[in-house]
Amino acid sequence: MMDFRMPDLGSALAPMSDAVTHSIRVEVLSRHAPDHSLPSKGEWVFQYTVRITNQSSETVQLLSRHWIITDALDHTHEVRGAGVVGEQPVLAPGESFQYSSWCPLKTPTGSMRGTYQMARPDGTQFDIEIAPFALKAKYTVH
């Protein structure tokens, strides 16, 4: 797995989202991956990196994800599944978990948003927000 550090949060280099729900912070950076995209075939690929930080006073576990992906033509695709990148991380107070993944689109722009389903040690479950973030390929003129 590649080492990817979150750049300065004030940076305008990549679209970003930042949300705090139930004292759990979710930050996302996204960028176009031109080396994996085939615009001539209507395929644009975006890489996104998520950092989840437990700012609460109790341990939590990420159980599942629900992504809502929308392209420039307003076509929506929903993705649900257990954990993230094959893991269901447990975060003690103050701990963070970071991962990177990919999203293909049929248009050069779009957006993603969603929720993570979390659990507390007593078994209660709750959702945390993944605030919307943009997926934007750079346009080039030849």
Explain how this protein is built.
It is a single chain. With 142 residues, this protein is mostly beta strands. The protein has a single domain, classed as ApaG domain (Immunoglobulin-like). Helices cover 0% and strands 56% of the residues. It has strands spanning 16-21, 24-32, 44-54, 60-71, 76-82, 90-91, 96-105, 109-119, 125-136. Residues 1-13 have low confidence and may be disordered.
Biggest sheet architecture: 5 strands, antiparallel
- The CATH superfamily turns out to be ApaG domain
- Estimated radius of gyration: 16 Å
Distance, first to last CA = 35 Å
CATH class: Mainly Beta
Distinctive features:
single chain, 142 residues, mainly beta, 56% strand
Give a summary of the structure in a few sentences:
With 142 residues, the chain is mostly beta strands. Helices cover 0% and strands 56% of the residues.
Annotate the secondary structure layout.
Blueprint: E1 16-21, E2 24-32, E3 44-54, E4 60-71, E5 76-82, E6 90-91, E7 96-105, E8 109-119, E9 125-136
Antiparallel strand pairs: 1-2, 2-3, 3-7, 4-5, 4-6, 4-8, 8-9
